Amino acid sequence: MSQTVRQIFCNAEHHCHIFRRSDALLLKLQRDTFDLVVIAAASSQAALPALSRLKRKHSAMPMMVVSHAQTESALLTALDGAADDYIAIGSDRVLLARAQALTRLAQSAGNETALSTEFDDYSFEPAGFLVRMPSGTVTLTPKEFALALLMFRNMSRELSRDYLIETVWGRRAEVASRTLDTHASRLRSKLRLSPEHGYLLSAVYSQGYRLDRLPEDHALAIQAPPVALTLPGCSGPANKFAATAAG
After folding, report:
1. Three-state DSSP state, 189
2. pTM
3. Which of 73, 116, 153, 199 is the most buried (most CB within 10 A)?
4. Which pairs from 106-112 meet CB under 8 Å and 24+ separation?
């Protein structure tokens, strides 16, 4: 069942990873990012243990149950078990459409900027790969533009290296991890994504990257010149898409 589901999504050019057990997926989720979890099982009842474990740790992540049963009771069992959707294997096009709709719904509900190109002081213009900001207009390369827009649309969310590379360069691209680091470094410089300008593009150890908008008082504190106090008698100053089986 899980192989069939994986093939349907891969044929549609989605990035699909398969996990035989839910605990393997939970381990992967500690360092990777997915837009949708599809639980493939012989029945919706069989999917409930995995669904419960995954929802307990990742309640905001959209999860769909897929099985062979085309009955109302199968649908109700899955939805009562906290699944966001249920579908019986049949039409590939229907499965893909429901998955895409569920992903869009989750993104728009959890992130109002999911499709935006305007972010406070930054305005993205896809036609010319331009970014307008207070200090002027910057022209980015296509990959820099795609990476920057992806980070801004996922503000304050940790995005894994695999997710960033697959989304920006494509699933079949052979891209060295260093290439991602180089692009992130260029964006920090070109878009001024540093604390003194109110933003922080940071590398997350063993994970990927995260972009945060800093509070205004933090940015002001960074910009303020340091004050050193010297006490009498002292020589110096006073003392930071997944598919899983039901197991």
Report:
1. helix
2. 0.56
3. 199
4. 106/35, 106/36, 106/60, 106/61, 106/62, 107/35, 110/60, 111/153, 111/154, 111/155, 111/157
The residue with tokens 């922080």 is 200
Residues 16 and 103 in one domain: yes
**How do the residues of the chain divide into helix, strand and coil, expressed in percent and rounded to 5?**
45, 20, 35
* pLDDT tens digits, 27-70: 888 777 788 899 998 888 999 999 999 988 888 788 999 998 88
Q: How many independent structural domains does the chain possess?
A: 2
Judge contact between 110 and 121, C-beta under 8 A: no
Would you tell me how many other CB atoms lie within 10 Å of the CB of residue 32?
Answer: 18
Query: In CATH, what number is assigned to the domain containing residue 158?
Result: 1.10.10.10
